[in-house]
Amino acid sequence: MAFGGFSDNQHNAPMAEINVTPMVDVMLVLLVIFIITAPLFTHAIKLDLPSANAAPSPEKPETVTVSINAQGQIFWEKEPVTEAQLVDKLASEGKKSPQPELQLRADKATRYEVIAKVMSDAQAGGLTKMGFVTEPPAAPDGPAASGAPATAPVGTGKK
User: 99: Cβ–Cβ under 8 A, 6 or more apart, which residues?
Assistant: First the structure.
């Protein structure tokens, strides 16, 4: 019983030819399919759009930095403030239009209770844009090596 045929001739030599006809048939079918579908991908609707003078984009809102050190002392733009002063400043910033973004910088040893209180005061003051300022892990040539902080937005709905 020979593999590949019904003849009783015993041929021990391997089959030396590869039948490429099925491969050529498949390639031609694919070529025809691509030739037919290629114009569909480049089809565009030609429109003559009207021109309009757009209003200038609003200025980027300012940022306010609130820092908290490891002992829980609060700083408003590098100046120490009391909790009552912080509440007043947050309320006045919350009334501005456009509203500034609050950047919260806290030492990693700061108690969460203090951070949560500042966040609560900011929300009560009407501030809706808040971000945490963090330092990425040290990399030889990354932003941490140059001293540039990274910010992570909180509560904006964007990731």
Answer: 61, 93, 126, 127, 128, 129
| Model-wide pTM > 0.70 | no
Q: Is the peptide bond before 153 cis (omega within 30 degrees of 0)?
A: no
pLDDT digits (tens, 9 = 90+) for 8-60: 666 677 777 888 899 999 999 999 999 988 877 776 666 666 677 777 666 77
CA separation for the pair 130, 150 (Å, rounded): 14
Burial 145-156 (b: 16+ CB within 10 A, else e): eeeeeeeeeeee
Q: What are phi and psi of 2, to 5 degrees?
A: -95, 145
How many domains, in total, are found in the chain? 1
Is 81 within a domain? Answer: yes
